[in-house]
């Protein structure tokens, strides 16, 4: 005897209300094992792989690539035999503090509460789940202006595109409004017929005018989250930015020696590595730059650990994954962690846990050939250090003018948490360790 089990979209943390289907790894009729990856979904922060909480046969895929699904709603139905294994839901705290594999079966058992008063759902196409079809009647509701039949993902898409479902003609069974119906209601947009094939790209629909003079792309996913975070940070924390240009010739010479050593064989040794290490050392004497302003409790929270964020430009937008407990890492371990973090972000595989919990950030604009900038704080953090391009220029050296390797460091900080003297002292110490790396080695 078999039972149909719904796999509900789990709560992926950080107050996220839903996600978009990026790519299915299975199809109807496929046999799946416990913890086998079923699907990739994209939240506002990351692309996440969801493993199966059941062992059995895929009976139904509830959403197509590109569709949005709310937390707590089914995304796949699995036919499970009575003796098949069923994963137990982990504790919420551990789910947020572990890798994506522990998301199995985790999530609320019912839909998140609506801001509007709940109305009795319409009954459309309901059949007995034991007969091989699961009911989605509970996912169909009405609005005050008349009955509107649409699944939550379709409603989510309509809200995103600014479409009033009351005026949309439903072509689905019983007049149900489908995804294509919503897209057809937007001027100059043909129905979406094929899913995105690149899991690292957003599945947002772009609006292109007939004359191809402009393109309109819905602000969703990482781009929306980044914009909201930057606006919130810029208008909440009083930013101050300081600049320091230093001669890093000794640092570049040290990097050449480290790169040629057996200890760092197979590892990328870059200026970012030594800048990160210098930042970690300087924080020991300047803990205010590793703190946060807790508006709720009226407290300044000083962190005695460093989760080092690295701003990364990816095909999905700006991400800031962080290296957990970076202050405990040796220089070799830090080099390995930086390489893994960058590769994971570029592949669009950063998990929500990678993107949360940061305490201070470095952004490296030098890779674009830019010398300096005024970076905006990552929300909740006290400081962000910007590394400019290392370039050769005439510089005063030992009483004469010589061609030296020079770069500019920019430090933005929250003036509520860090005063000018503290910020200046921290920046000067980081710069001194790059001017004379023996100072960095001695303090590491």
Describe the structure.
The chain folds into three domains: 2-103, RNA polymerase II/Efflux pump adaptor protein, barrel-sandwich hybrid domain (OB fold (Dihydrolipoamide Acetyltransferase, E2P), Beta Barrel); 133-218, Irregular (Dihydrolipoamide Transferase); 224-443, Chloramphenicol acetyltransferase-like domain (Chloramphenicol Acetyltransferase, 2-Layer Sandwich). It has helices spanning 92-96, 152-161, 179-184, 221-234, 249-260, 271-283, 331-346, 420-435, 437-443; strands spanning 2-8, 18-24, 31-32, 37-42, 47-51, 56-61, 68-70, 74-81, 207-208, 215-216, 239-247, 291-294, 299-302, 308-310, 312-314, 317-319, 322-323, 360-364, 383-387, 391-397, 400-414. The longest helix has 16 residues, at 331-346. With 444 residues, it is of the alpha+beta class. Helix content is 22%, strand content 24%. A hairpin with a 4-residue loop joins strand 12 and strand 13 (299-302). The chain is elongated and about 85 Å long. The protein contains nine helices and 21 strands. Strands 11, 14, 17, 18, 19, 20 and 21 form a seven-stranded mixed β-sheet that branches. It has a four-stranded antiparallel β-sheet with strand order 1-8-6-3, with no helix packed on it.
**Mean pLDDT, as a whole number?**
78
Q: Tell me the distance between the termini.
A: 63 Å
Count the DSSP helices: 9
Q: What is the count of distinct domains?
A: 3
Helical residue percent band: 10-25%
The ordered string of helix (H) and strand (E) elements is: EEEEEEEEHHHEEHEHHEEEEEEHEEEEHH
- CATH homologous superfamily (4th level) name of the largest domain: Chloramphenicol acetyltransferase-like domain
Low-confidence stretches: 84-146, 188-205
Based on DSSP secondary structure assignment, what is the total number of beta strands? 21
Query: Could you please say which CATH topology of the largest domain applies here?
Result: Chloramphenicol Acetyltransferase
| Main sheet specs | 7 strands, mixed
CATH uppermost class of the largest domain? Alpha Beta
Write down the Rg.
26 Å
Structural class: alpha+beta
User: What is the annotated CATH architecture of the largest domain?
Assistant: 2-Layer Sandwich
Shape label = elongated
Strand content: 15-25%
């Amino acid at each position: 005897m078999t039972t149909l089990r719904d796999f509900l979209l789990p709560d992926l943390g950080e107050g996220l209300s839903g996600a978009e289907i990026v790519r299915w790894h299975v199809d109807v009729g496929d046999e799946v094992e416990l913890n086998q990856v079923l699907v990739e979904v994209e939240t506002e922060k990351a692309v996440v792989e969801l493993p199966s909480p059941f062992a059995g046969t895929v009976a139904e895929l509830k959403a197509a690539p590109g569709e949005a699904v709310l937390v707590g709603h089914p995304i796949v139905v699995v036919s499970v035999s009575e003796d098949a294994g069923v994963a137990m839901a982990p504790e919420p705290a551990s789910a947020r503090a572990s890798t994506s594999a522990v998301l199995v079966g985790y999530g609320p058992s019912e839909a998140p509460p609506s801001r509007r008063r709940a109305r009795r759902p319409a009954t459309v196409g309901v059949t007995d789940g034991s007969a091989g079809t699961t009911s989605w009647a509970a996912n169909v509701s009405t609005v005050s202006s008349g009955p509107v039949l649409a699944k939550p993902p379709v409603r989510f898409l309509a809200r995103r595109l600014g479409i009033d479902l009351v005026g949309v003609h439903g072509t689905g069974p019983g007049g149900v409004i489908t995804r294509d119906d919503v897209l057809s209601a937007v001027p100059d947009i043909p129905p979406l017929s094929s899913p995105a094939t690149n899991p690292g790209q957003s599945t947002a629909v772009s609006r292109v005018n007939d004359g191809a003079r402009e393109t309109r792309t819905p602000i969703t996913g990482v781009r929306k989250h980044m914009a909201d975070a930057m606006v919130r940070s810029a208008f909440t924390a009083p930013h101050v930015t300081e600049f320091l240009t230093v001669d890093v010739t000794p640092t570049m010479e040290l990097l050449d020696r480290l790169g040629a050593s057996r200890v760092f064989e197979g590892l990328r040794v870059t200026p970012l590595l030594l800048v990160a290490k210098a930042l970690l050392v300087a924080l020991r004497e300047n803990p205010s730059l590793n703190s946060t302003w807790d508006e709720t409790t009226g407290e300044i929270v000083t962190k005695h650990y460093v989760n080092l964020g690295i701003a990364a430009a990816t095909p999905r937008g700006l991400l800031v994954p962080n290296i957990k407990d970076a202050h405990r890492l040796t220089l070799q371990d830090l080099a390995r962690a930086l390489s893994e973090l960058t590769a994971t972000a570029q592949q669009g595989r950063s998990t929500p846990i990678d993107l949360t919990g940061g305490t201070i950030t470095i952004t490296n604009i030098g890779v674009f050939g830019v010398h300096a900038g005024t970076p905006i704080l990552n929300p909740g953090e006290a400081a962000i250090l910007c590394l400019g391009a290392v370039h050769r220029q005439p510089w005063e050296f030992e009483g004469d003018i010589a061609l030296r390797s020079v770069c500019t460091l920019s430090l933005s900080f929250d003036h509520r948490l860090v005063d000018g003297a503290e910020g200046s002292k921290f920046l000067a110490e980081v710069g001194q360790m790059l001017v004379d790396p023996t100072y960095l080695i001695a303090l590491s």
